[in-house]
Amino acid sequence: MDMQVAKKKLGLKEKYQVMTRGLDWEPSYQKKEDIYPYASYEGIKIHDWDKWEDPFRLTMDAYWKYQAEKERKLYAIIDAYAQNNGHLNVTDARYINTVKLFLTGVSPLEYMAHRGFAHAGRAFPGAGPRVACLMQSLDEIRHAQTQIHALSNFNKHYNGLHDFRHMHDRVWYLSVPKSFFDDAVTAGPFEFMVAIGFSFEYVLTNLLFVPFVSGAAYNGDMGTMTFGFSAQSDEARHMTLGLEVIKFILEQDPDNLPIVQRWIDKWTWRGYRVLTLVAMMMDYMLPKRTMSWKEAWEVYFEENGGALFKDLARYGITMPRCAETIALEKDHLSHQAWGTFYNYGAAAAFHTWVPEKEEMDWLAAKYPQSFDKYYRPRLEFWREQAAKGNRFYNKTLPMLCQTCQIPMLFTEPGDPTKICYREVDYQGSKYHFCSDHCKEIFEHEPEKYVQSWLPVHQIYQGSCFPEGTDPSAEGFDPLAAVLQYYHLEFGRDNLDFEGSEDQKNFDLWRGQATKNG
Amino acid sequence: MAVAAIGKYEFEPADALEKFHGAQLLYIGWEDHLLFCAPFAFPFPPTMPFRAVVEEVLPGSFGYHPDFARIDWAQAEWFKSGQPWRPDFDKSLAENGLRHKDVIRFRTPGLRGIAGSCS
Question: Choosing a second label site near A259 at 20 to 30 A (CA), which of A11, A348, A432, B17?
Fold first, then answer.
């Protein structure tokens, strides 16, 4: 006869305790430092892992149920968008180039974030941060997947999206986001958490996701907008984790402060340099603009970030010094970046163009200190030349910064007419930088950055041609070989938007959808 | 400072001279002409005469700019690593003291880019 036992049900608080901290155990036949070999070499001192406050308040079963429900809704919308040819509702086919930039430059970073948080979680001796990292790691791989699924719809109709993963590891401008994340995941677990968990997810994420998602909404791209909203509830948790990491580390030992401050300085700058791509997207690539890059920086960094660093002052943390340089760049960044892609439009996997007259007027209104004086003459010259059939395509490879890997396009702080050159001699060789901040990052860890895979130098070393290429053959065309290595099809994926297959197809299909044949 | 690492951390620089098949890198920028978004990187043999760089290579790289045809090379001011510098056009890059990954720039007095905008 079965005994009737009152079924025990755990209360929420108990369940939470059992399914997070309760999963941990004290090792008995292995030493703790052998199980967690990366826990101390960065110099961060943790005395009591139990002081960690779990920011997620989620257990795995609840996580699973909640995310599955969210994803069911998301995929229903993505399917409806695809079935109704939602891509024809975007403002203008130029918009689709922002999607190409996102898929090739950002989605692979979501996957890297998945790997990075999985690794950091494994490396931490505390059960609390381990569980939090596990959940963020799962969030990140979900984001990578949902982005790829949502954007794959565009790949059926438009060029440049066909091999985003291959391109991410090879194409010159994609080495900027790629090397940023590779730098973070090759650091120790604590630096990774400050780099990605705090500096990127907390301080800078609003400058990445809000512009893309609101840009999608403004420009009629409901598919992209939906994955953005779906990810938003996760992002809120990520921000909480990022902040908790900083507070926890700083409360554990006063010796941690200078290390953390240096990481915040470094990663705010590294992240900001990656956002150069977002700046030009906002000001130049969205047919219907949401706000200017400068306005976004002022709201999301100067105001919100300013308040954050005021809060952190009680731990001794100060605003990163690079904020002063960034303030001087905000009138120039997007213009200099777009000019660079216009220069190298033959080697990009998306289209470039000169803004129309009304768009230039918008830029002049948003950038009264800089646009008419420095950038309008350049753009108008390019437009005149293009009209004469002499569209500018720069065919000489640019000098790159050793740290951020961006072409040396940035100007001296306070003087937009002079390129900013910085250099260091290290072990008998010269290294060049776009800024004081990239130079300082190198000087702190030169052994790391001498290994930078700089696309321009790799091309000159002969590493960027398809296998079996003979560069000494007669009539060898290095640019053509590099584009083949990128899987970038000349004349379809690259060059000016004007006259592109994307432009023609979009006009044709939209005409069929809105008019009688 | 050194990288914080769990063991020995020493790696080859990715851009050592011997990886460039006999060439050395030279970076060249043209002041006040930011229509070219960044300075250029070139792989040149160290034996190449400086004159060949100016007369045979630079026109292909900078010639799109209407100011380029107006350059009086006798008036051009040169800088190496930001310091005033005077190249000998008839000597090679090596004889001019140019080493792997050196950066030089030139300024062309009187030429200030599209409509004087430094473009």
Answer: A432
**CA pair distance A407, A145, nearest whole angstrom:** 31
Domain parsing of chain A, residue ranges: 49-468+476-514
Best CA proximity match to A315, nearest among A263, A261, A277, A366:
A261
Conformation bin of residue B115: beta by default, left when phi > 0, alpha when psi is -120 to 50: left
CA-based nearest residue to A140, from A119, A117, A120: A117
Nearest in space to A505 (alpha carbons), one of A96, A31, A147, A114: A96
Of the candidates B37, B82, B118, the beta carbon closest to that of A409 is on B37
Residue A13: count of CB within 10 angstroms of its CB: 8
Cα–Cα distance, A469 to A258 (Å, whole number)? 50
CB contact under 8 A, A340 and B27: no
% of chain A with per-residue pLDDT over 90: 83
Phi, psi of A496 (to 5 degrees): -70, 150
Compute φ and ψ for A308, nearest 5 degrees: -60, -50
Task: Say yes or no to pLDDT of A1 above 60.
Answer: no
Task: Please check the confidence at residue A39 and state whether its pLDDT lies above 90.
Answer: yes
Please give the C-alpha separations between residue A265 and each of A100, A130, A260, B16, in angstroms, as whole numbers: 30, 25, 9, 30
Q: What is the distance in angstroms between the CA of the first residue and the CA of the last residue of chain A?
A: 79
Of the pLDDT bands very low, low, confident and very high (cuts 50, 70, 90), residue B27 is very high
List CB contacts (< 8 A) between A188 and chain B: 4
Burial A115-128 (b: 16+ CB within 10 A, else e): ebbbebbebbbbbb
Q: Which residue of A has its CA nearest to B29?
A: A419
Handedness of CA A21, A24, A28, A30 (dihedral sign): negative
Judging by beta carbons within 10 Å of its beta carbon (0-12, 13-18, 19+), is residue B17 exposed, middle or buried?
middle
Give the closest residue to B104 by CA, choosing from B24, B25, B27.
B27
Q: State the architecture of B22-116 in CATH terms.
A: Roll (3.10)
Mean pLDDT on A266-291: 96
**Residue A400, beta-bridge partner list:** A407
> Top-level CATH class of A49-468+476-514?
mainly alpha
Size of interface A-B (CB pairs under 8 A): 144
Which tokens in the block code for residue A439?
Answer: 């130079």
What residue of B is the nearest CA neighbor of A40? B6
B83-95 pLDDT per residue, tens: 999 999 999 999 9
- Please choose, from the candidates A496, A486, A493, the residue with its C-alpha nearest in 3D space to the C-alpha of residue A158: A493
Q: Is A79 on the interface with B (CB under 8 A)?
A: no
Long-range contacts: A386-390, Cβ < 8 Å, 24+?
A386/A354, A386/A496, A386/A498
Which of helix, strand or coil describes residue B29?
strand
In Å, how far are A34, A108, A494 from A333, measured between CA atoms? 47, 24, 23
**Encoded amino acid at A313, one letter:** A
At B44 the three-state DSSP class reads strand
**Closest partner residue to A407 among B32, B37, B81, by Cβ?**
B37
